[in-house]
Amino acid sequence: MTSEEARQQAQAEELTLRVAKNKTGYFGVAHRPCHPKPYKAQVWRGRGKIVHLGYFATAEEAALCVARLPEGKVGAANPLMSQQARQQERQQARQQARAEGLTLVVAENTTGYFGVSLPYPGLPNPYQARARRDGKAVNLGSFATAEEAALCVARSPEGRAVAAERAASAVPLTSEEARQQAQAEKLTLVVADNKTSYFGVFHRPNCSNKPYEAGVKRGGKTVSLGYFVNAEEAALCVARTPEGRTAARRSAVAAALTREEAWQQAQAEGLELRVGKNRTGYCGVRLGKPGQPKPYKAQVTRGGTGKSMYLGSFATAEEAALCIARSPEGQAAARRASAAENQATLPAVPSGAFVNKEEVAPPPVPPGANRWDGLILLEERARRACFLLACADRQEKELPKRQRMQ
Questions:
Q1: Considering only CA atoms, which of 45, 40, 39 is closest in space to residue 69?
Q2: How far apart are CA 325 and CA 271, in angstroms?
Q3: What is the pLDDT of residues 268-286, one digit of tens each?
Q4: pLDDT tens for residues 283-341?
Q5: Which among 343, 359, 382 is the end of a domain?
């Protein structure tokens, strides 16, 4: 049977040829080069027993043979729901470990956890938990997720001893020492808009001794890197990982704008950085985190409910004001302010004042001019006052002439 015929037969029988990360690309299919039928189909059945199904000319034909068995149908009926269920089980295992004050010890292996192996891929409980006891490997059970197996290992005396040994060998660093160590290793503690202000660092208030957890996304799942005394030490642990280095490179590309660059960008886009009577000097901008790399927060009121919407954190107040000016709310506020200034009229001219055709009333203040520089507003007011005085003086001079004409 050719590869195409095997796929068509699978569709006719409503079967799924389950893919896998191996040389053949299919679950339960192994490759035997230099044979007339180089593809072997096999499944795990019972307690780690391998059942041989036969040899085939193509990988698809072997995968079809596997798909017809109960072992091949596990996880193929609804893979999305199975993935969601596994993610929930992983999260529950992590929460249970934190509740019991345990540490899921990480390791550099295929599962990512100490004492956990993957001997039965494709089975409902593929992960196995083991511990070395009296010089022998002791099987602690099989589990659906690596986190559940790691939790079982963490509950064992051997797992507790390894976690305690690693915790004792790691001397906690202070915040300043963590920053200095990052500089020495030429690493970047990537900042983020969260409660800890650092990428990959989470605050766990229930863990009183080490309330900061370091974690990264790896292979579609969150891998815990451990718990730390302060956020900087946890951020240093994240910065040493490949995921932390990638985040640092992305952060370096998206560099913050300086004050002058923000002003120039606003002028180039025809926007107005609306000033306000607050600490930052701009409407919608507040100083949320003084001393941090991005202390200024931009927010607007969105919708008819008056709900405040957070737009992001920035290094300078001008950059935050530029973000607000680009938003629909900021542009609408600028239009309202411009319309209100255009409707403002000059002060009333005294009764009987004479204004000839050459004498033209001074134009109104350009929209936004008094917001760019306060001196422009003072100059305009002085010009208007001079105009009114000139009108009154001309009225006194023309009054005798009018009386003679009468």
A1: 45
A2: 6
A3: 888 888 888 888 888 889 8
A4: 889 888 777 777 888 888 876 666 788 888 888 888 889 888 988 888 888 888 877 77
A5: 343
User: Alpha carbon of 223 to those of 20, 94, 189, 212, 215: distances in Å?
Assistant: 22, 10, 18, 14, 5
Residues 241 and 266 in one domain: no
Element at 300 (helix H, strand E): strand 296-302
Helix, strand, coil percentages (3-state) for the chain, rounded to 5, are 40, 20, 40
Q: What tens digit of pLDDT does each residue of 17-75 get?
A: 888 778 888 888 998 888 888 999 988 776 567 888 899 999 999 999 988 887 777 65
Q: 109: domain range?
A: 81-169
Number of domains in the chain: 5
Instruction: Specify whether 305 is located in the same domain as 283.
Output: yes
Last residue of a domain, one of 73, 96, 118: 73
Please report, for residues 113, 120, 128, 238, 260, the alpha-carbon distance to residue 149 in angstroms, rounded to integers and kept in the order given. 9, 13, 6, 24, 56
Residues 399, 367 within the same domain? yes
Please report the sign of the dihedral spanned by the C-alpha atoms of residue 229, residue 231, residue 236, residue 241: positive
- Which letter, b or e, does each residue of 54-78 get, where b requires 16 or more Cβ atoms within 10 Å of its Cβ? ebbbbbbbbbbbbbeeebbeebbee
Residue type present at position 159: G
- CA torsion sign for 253, 259, 264, 268 is positive
Q: Give the model confidence (pLDDT) of 196-240 as tens digits.
A: 889 999 988 876 678 899 998 887 788 888 888 899 999 998 998
Do 213 and 271 lie in one domain? The reply is no
Are residues 224 and 268 located together in one domain of the fold?
A: no
Please report which residue ranges of 13-78 form alpha helices under DSSP H: 59-67, 70-73
Looking at the fold, whether 62 and 14 belong to one and the same domain comes out as: yes
179 and 139 in a common domain: no
Asked if 298 and 280 touch (Cβ cutoff 8 Å), the reply is no
| Tokens at 248, concatenated | 């640092």
Residue 90 and residue 60 in one domain: no
Length of the chain: 406
Residue bearing tokens 């780690």: 48
C-alpha angle 199-205-210 in degrees, rounded to nearest 5: 75
For 26, which DSSP code? B
